[in-house]
Amino acid sequence: MKKILIQTDFSHVSCQTIDSVLKLFKNKTCDFYFLNTYTYNIKGLDALSLLHVDEEWYDKPKEESEDKLAKLIGYYTKKYLMSNHNFHSISEYSTLVEAVKKHQQRLGIDLVILSSGINEDLDKENKLVLEQIRECPVLLLPAITHIDNKLSITIAADFKQTINTDQIDQFRLGLGRKKIEIGILVLDEQNRLSEDVARNLKTFIAYLKQFQNTKINLEYARDKKQLKAYASQHLNGIMCLVDKKPSFLRKIGLHKSHLVSRLKQLSTNSVLAIHQ
User: Fold this and answer.
1) According to the model, what pLDDT value does residue 264 have?
2) What predicted TM-score, i.e. pTM, was given to this entire model?
3) What's 264's DSSP letter?
4) Kind plus residue range of the DSSP H or E element containing 127
5) Hey, is 87 helix, strand or coil?
6) Which end is more exposed in the chain, N or C (fewer Cβ atoms within 10 Å of the end residue's Cβ)?
7) Nearest to 139 by CA among 100, 118, 112
8) Is the pLDDT of residue 251 over 60?
9) How many CB atoms lie within 10 A of CB 118?
């Protein structure tokens, strides 16, 4: 049984995300957890005003969240009545990243799904999730998602470290019988690979050959411009970015993940984040 956590704000885009995910995992028995987070709008309220607000003011966001989640669950339960999908709701007064962290650990979530392009605030929260949630893969889906029946995944990495394939296996095996073709985009110049990069690349190709009978597509992108050009030509697949193990400077907030910085070149792509 695969457990998938899907963030929703009940917008049209987030509902499209749910539809895309259910289609992607149609051949797999899954528990889907719809997560909605909410906060209180205290702009314009001073401390004295906050002391005088009534219970209805506090209860309203939670009640609205729970009511919309109930309708969402009812809709998809009816739509997929005879399927192997089960639906659950989570309403949480929290930031998105703290809620994802809490329920990923509590439920043993196998995959986190986020929607991108809804608004700037949510995109910022998505980046925090990508930075901090490392226990499972995170799939980021744009407003318009193009995923073919035969799924193509591109592993985009600099291969300066050996790729940990555990989360790749976790994602691809979770898709059940769906046909998958995995290619490689080396984020480096082809004629300037170091010995370590060449060795790690060779090891990863050998890993792919264990289960992929078709030719492995291998391409190179030496800069952000070439990465963006490649991504724009592969909108019907998933771009997979590898997040390196955080350094000390990143842990204390002085450095950002390269994964997050590369999202600018992949704004219209479906992006799978895996972690070393």
Assistant:
1) 84
2) 0.89
3) G
4) helix 120-132
5) strand
6) N
7) 112
8) no
9) 19
Instruction: Answer whether residue 27 shows pLDDT above 60.
Output: yes
For the beta sheet containing 218-220, the strands, ordered from the edge strand earlier in sequence to the opposite edge, are 85-93, 30-38, 2-7, 111-115, 138-141, 270-275, 238-243, 151-157, 180-186, 218-220
| Helix, strand or coil, per DSSP, at residue 59 | helix
CA gap 11, 225 in Å, rounded: 32
Please name each of the domains of the chain with its CATH number. Answer: 2-140 (3.40.50.620), 151-275 (3.40.50)
- Cα-based distances in Å from 160 to 5, 198, 232, 251: 31, 9, 25, 20
Structure tokens at 244: 């390196």
243 vs 273, which has greater pLDDT?
273
Residue 235 is which amino acid?
L
Percent of the chain clearing pLDDT 90 (strictly above): 58
Which pLDDT band, with edges at 50, 70 and 90, does 43 fall under? low
pLDDT confidence of residue 61: 82
The DSSP code sequence of 135-194 is: SS-EEEE-SS----SSEEEEEEE--SS----HHHHHHHHHTTT--EEEEEEESS-GGG--
Q: Among residues 24, 11, 266, 270, which one has the least CA distance to residue 145?
A: 270
Amino acid identity of 212?
Q
Residue 60 is predicted with a pLDDT of 80
Contact between residue 216 and residue 181 where contact means Cβ atoms under 8 Å apart: no
Structure tokens, 267? 């704004």
The CA dihedral of 210, 212, 215, 221, to the nearest 10 degrees, is: -90
